[in-house]
From TrEMBL:
One MF term in the entry's GO annotations: hydrolase activity
Occurrences of domain Glycoside hydrolase family 2 immunoglobulin-like beta-sandwich (ranges): 240-307
InterPro entries on file: Beta-gal/glucu_dom_sf, Beta-mannosidase-like_N2, Beta-mannosidase_GH2, Galactose-bd-like_sf, GH, Glyco_hydro_2_cat, Ig-like_fold, Ig-like_GH2
Species assigned in the record: Paenibacillus mendelii
Alphabetical keyword list: Glycosidase, Hydrolase, Signal
Domain Glycoside hydrolase family 2 catalytic: 327-441
Source taxonomy: Bacteria, Bacillati, Bacillota, Bacilli, Bacillales
Beta-mannosidase-like galactose-binding domain residues: 37-192
EC numbers, comma separated: 3.2.1.25
Name of the protein: beta-mannosidase
Length: 773
């Protein structure tokens, strides 16, 4: 069996301004006078500097700007290693699962390779170099990504946001150069694990499972396999497949004619994998054994889901030519309700410790899809394993965002290699529903007057990789994708999938209510963090007031200090959204926080319910976003410290599989609707009443078909009337709740606070007095 030796833990870390010392190989480090510090692996160099007392806490106040002095440094990691297991003539690999970013590698002062991509793992064959029981020295030099970017040639066909042109050539998480949701933190380090792997001569090298057919009565799974074997074993090799899920079991042994091939196997009455709300996310434990006669040479265990995923989409959607953007799983249309998944931390070595709790939040909110945004890194198997188990579909962007990347052949080749590694790594996960070429890069082309369909990266390079390595999964070139016909029309309303941001004014304005797109890949609204959280990241003397507060601007988020920062507007935007709803700018921080959270909560509830009440014209919303990756004022519904905003509780109710909702006024009435986003019909009783008078406005029994939308009746409601409606319904003895805010702004802030207590008491309740604390 393959043996793995963990090389994580404490390393020695040297650092200095790149080029200041003539050090180009490990032996020269001994002449270096500066004392090294401890470098943690996995880790980021800034965290090591903080631990050594050389940097202040970068999450607090304006300290984040202190990191920029280290952007032109180089970093040298060293450690000893020793292998005490038998090696013999086995193949040995050094695997670096994440190195940020421009690196050279030495083993015992001998150069063994280079890498220049933070986003993928790097493997080096060190067979014959490692001796059992002998101490070896491993050294890694990481050069400055900024200096490397300065050495590149740029053309008019390349463009980025003003804060992050460095992202164009360097394969590093784009947000690290500064974004509106993340600070500028151009880090370096060994940010994922390092390990030494001792291989066997005969082993399972790769398996790729894909579902060909999936019904309740019959499923067909296709397996592509790649083995490593000694030539003498070739004529006697067999592959034994054992797949088990509950009472469903399949077992078969196949003779192998060669070390590569494919086979199909049928499973009667299979347990299918379904997204949340539509059924069980059933996983088969598949044990694959490589046999030579009766001898087991190698064993591998995978967990696969038997399901098909289709994306039914058109290139445009207009009144004359109605379009579509619909996901189907196992042939069933799925109404998508989920969130954008953005960086879990500005220092990605901390991601792994945050994944499980963040996924728990998505599960609690009944999300059935997460979109891995293209400005971040690619998540590891732990993220996808949790999505697999919890029935959460994953929309995976390739790591390009809000830019026009080089079309140069060298960059094409770099992207091709990256995509091959990522696709082969993640393609067995049943949660992985779709690959997307990038985030908003098509938009970047259009803004500059160029046709995004000339982008060879997303129209040629990535499709070719996917056809080669994962040809059975949907792909869309960009989010939003601007097809040749859509580009010709020059009309955003013609995009079937769109990011709905606009002016971010009143959340029921015509921009939101009249949008014709079928699917919202992004859609957000600001909400202030709680007072206890603010006091963790804003220094006490800067906690209030909000206006002209530089620390609030820093955490809004401003990548650079000063009046020219591109994202200074975001604090004012948050305040303006309060004023839009309540007609005031609160004078106390406590009121500012509560009013802002109410504004955000009502907005996101409206966005979700708007999609549900127009099913199937609208087929999904991925609201922005679940959780912050650093302490900030933002659109997230959970802050960096896991404090839940009011929007979290409203979303939880709005995304439950069966939900009763109220539509907007029309013809003197509002209509009450019930949405069922599940595979089971349901029936129950409901009541809608006025929160102030307790007058029952509509009640009775209801029935709703599987995956359907029903109309329960109308309530007279002139547009001028401001009131809160409370909704309660019961299905199979379980009670559920929701509410509806009727009328147009401005609402009384004091009145809404009294309503909030009544909203909180509905089923799936929360503590109203904890909002804003």
């Amino acid at each position: 069996m393959t043996r793995t030796i963990d090389l994580d833990g404490q390393w020695t870390l040297y650092y200095f301004p790149q080029g200041e010392h003539q050090i180009s190989e490990p032996a020269q480090l001994q002449t270096f006078s500066m004392q090294p510090i401890a470098g943690q692996v996995p880790g980021n160099v800034e965290l090591d500097l903080v631990e050594a007392g050389l940097l202040p806490d970068p999450y607090v106040g304006d300290n984040i700007y202190e990191l920029q002095q280290y952007e032109t440094y180089e970093w040298w990691y060293e450690r000893e290693l020793q292998v005490d297991v038998p090696i013999g003539s086995r193949r040995i690999e050094l695997i670096f699962h994440g190195v940020d970013c421009m690196a050279a590698y030495w083993l015992d002062n001998e150069l063994i390779g280079h890498s220049d991509n933070m986003l993928i793992e790097h493997r080096f064959d060190v067979s014959g170099r490692i001796k059992q029981g002998q101490k070896h020295k491993l050294t890694i030099r990481i050069r400055s990504a900024v200096i490397e970017a300065m050495s590149k040639r740029y053309d008019p066909s390349s463009r980025a946001m003003q804060t992050n042109y460095e992202q164009l050539w360097i394969r590093k998480a784009p947000h690290m150069y500064g974004w509106d949701i993340m600070p500028r933190a151009v880090s370096a380090g060994l940010w994922r694990s390092v390990e030494l792997v001792v291989h066997e001569a005969n082993e399972i090298d790769d398996l790729y499972f894909t579902t060909v057919e999936a019904t309740e009565r019959h499923a067909v799974v296709q397996l592509f396999y790649q083995m490593r074997a000694e030539p003498r074993r070739l004529r006697n090799l067999q592959l034994k497949i054992t797949a088990v899920c509950g009472s469903s079991r399949y077992e078969q042994t196949y003779p192998l004619r060669f070390t590569y091939g494919h086979l199909r196997f049928a499973i009667p009455n299979p347990s299918l994998w379904w997204p949340r709300g539509y059924g069980e996310a059933a996983l088969y434990e598949v044990t694959t054994e490589l046999l030579s006669g009766e001898e087991v040479l190698d064993t591998r265990v995978d967990h696969i889901g038997i399901r098909t995923v289709e994306l039914i989409r058109t290139d445009i959607s207009t009144i004359e030519h109605p379009g579509q953007f619909m996901f189907k799983v196992n042939g069933v249309p799925i109404l998508i309700k989920g969130s954008n998944w953005v960086p879990l931390d500005m220092f990605h070595s901390k991601d792994a410790d945050r994944v499980a709790e963040a996924i728990d939040l998505a599960v609690d909110l009944n999300c059935n899809m997460l979109r891995c945004w293209g400005g971040s890194v690619y998540e590891d198997h732990d993220f996808f394993d949790l999505c697999d188990r919890n029935g959460i579909l994953v929309w995976q962007d390739f790591a390009m965002a809000c830019a026009m990347y080089p079309q140069d052949p060298a960059f094409q080749e770099a992207l091709r290699k990256e995509a091959e590694v990522i696709v082969r790594k993640l393609r067995n996960h049943p949660s992985l529903a779709i690959w997307c070429g990038d985030n908003e890069c098509d938009d970047s082309f259009v803004y500059t007057g160029l046709d995004p369909n000339d982008n060879v990266l997303t129209r040629k390079v990535l499709p070719d990789v996917l056809f080669q390595h994962d040809p059975y999964r949907p792909y869309v070139p960009s989010s939003p994708y601007i097809s040749p016909e859509a580009y010709r029309l020059k009309n955003e309303d013609a995009y079937p999938e769109r990011h709905l941001w606009g002016a971010r004014d009143y959340f029921k304005s015509s921009f939101y209510s009249m949008a014709r797109s079928h699917f919202a890949g992004e859609m957000g609204y600001h909400g202030c963090t709680s007072l206890s959280s603010i006091r963790k990241y804003i220094e006490e003397e800067h906690v209030w007031p909000w206006k002209d507060n530089e620390q609030w601007v820093t955490h809004a988020t401003a990548p650079v200090r000063g009046p020219d920062s591109a994202f200074r507007y975001r604090v004012q935007l948050m305040a303006d959204q309060i004023n839009e709803l309540f007609g005031q700018y609160p004078e106390r921080i406590e009121d500012f926080i509560i009013a802002s959270q109410i504004s955000q909560a009502e907005a996101k509830k409206y966005f979700i319910e708007r999609v549900r009440m127009r099913k199937w014209h609208t087929t999904g919303v991925l609201w922005w976003n679940l959780i912050d990756g650093w302490p900030q004022f933002s659109d997230a519904v959970v802050d960096y410290y896991y404090s839940k905003k009011l929007a979290y509780h409203y979303i939880k109710r709005a995304q439950q599989p069966i939900c009763i909702m109220v539509d907007e006024p029309d013809s003197w009435h509002i209509r009450v609707k019930v949405g069922n986003d599940s595979n089971q019909a349901a029936n129950g009783t409901f009541r809608v009443w006025d929160a102030d008078s307790s007058e029952t406005l509509l009640e009775g029994p209801f029935e709703i078909e599987a995956n359907g939308l029903g109309d329960l009746g109308a309530i007279r409601a002139p547009r001028s009337q401001q009131r809160l409606l409370l909704i309660r319904w019961e299905i199979d003895g379980i009670e559920y709740g929701n509410h509806y805010l009727q009328g147009t702004p401005g609402f009384s802030y004091e009145q809404y606070k009294s309503w909030l207590e009544k909203i909180a008491l509905l089923p799936q309740g929360f503590q109203a007095d904890e909002v804003g604390v």
